[in-house]
Design goal:
Blueprint lengths: L2 H16 L6 H11 L7 E5 L5 H10 L4 E6 L9 E5 L7 H9 L3 E6 L9 H22 E12 L4 H9 L2 E7 L10 E9 L2
Parallel strand pairs: 1-2, 1-4, 2-3, 4-5
Antiparallel strand pairs: 5-7, 6-7
Bound molecules: S-adenosylmethionine (SAM).
Length: 197
């Protein structure tokens, strides 16, 4: 078995043993161990939350005092402590709905958004960056000053422009590849700290 397959298998097994719905939970756990983005009592929005692996991590981290809202096009089986909205982040009334549920702006915006992949690298990259740009627009409306965000991105030509855009809104913009993310996949995570507006 190739090392990459063995690692994928390892996280799949761990997720099953530890009751996470998706291997992706470990990517967020690793990012949060490094950057301590999600704290007890945080208000967190999870964009592209199905099947709910990140929601499981976040609800545990924020505890009873926190608030968690997830959005996805797909239905999501309920996660205790989270409110899930079915819809698109492109819906114009979505940010007002979310701020209404949170009762104020969010401390953290998470985006693990991914389009349906076609297998054509250029097209998938462009679609994913376009979704991430929408997520950034969303963060600009919903995040409180000083808040943090995480954006999943697919590597490619448009990435630098997106990073430059992030730098106009955040004090620190850090590229990360958690070890739970398959080495051969083109996904990266951008951790953004100190939202300026
Ligand atoms: C990689 S999955 C997220 C996995 C999730 N973080 C977890 O741990 O369970 C990406 C999700 O983005 C969602 N998505 C794609 N475009 C969207 C859009 N415009 N609005 C909301 N969700 C979207 C997809 O439906 C998919 O469920």
């Amino acid at each position: 078995m190739r090392l990459a397959d063995a690692r994928k298998d390892q996280y799949r097994r761990l997720a099953k043993d530890q009751g996470y719905r998706a291997r992706s939970a470990y990517k967020l756990l690793q990012l949060n161990n490094s950057y301590h983005i999600i704290k007890k009592g945080s208000k967190v929005v999870d964009l592209g939350c199905a099947p709910g692996g990140w929601l499981q991590v976040v609800t545990k981290e924020v505890g009873q005092a926190g608030k968690v809202v997830g959005i996805d096009l797909k239905p999501v089986e309920s996660v205790a402590g989270a409110t899930v909205l079915k819809g698109s982040i492109e819906d114009v009334d979505m940010f007002e709905k979310i701020v209404g549920i949170l009762g104020s702006k969010a401390d953290v915006i998470l985006s693990d958004l991914a389009p349906n992949v076609s297998g054509l690298w250029d097209i998938d990259h462009a679609r994913q960056i376009s979704l991430s740009a929408t997520a950034l627009g969303f963060a600009r409306q919903v995040l409180r000053v000083g808040g943090s965000a995480v954006f999943k991105v697919f590597e490619g030509d448009l990435l630098n422009e997106f990073r430059a855009d992030l730098k106009t809104s955040f004090g620190r913009v850090l590229l990360n590849k958690p070890s739970a993310s398959r080495q051969e996949s083109s996904e990266l995570y951008i951790v953004c700290l100190d939202f300026k507006q």
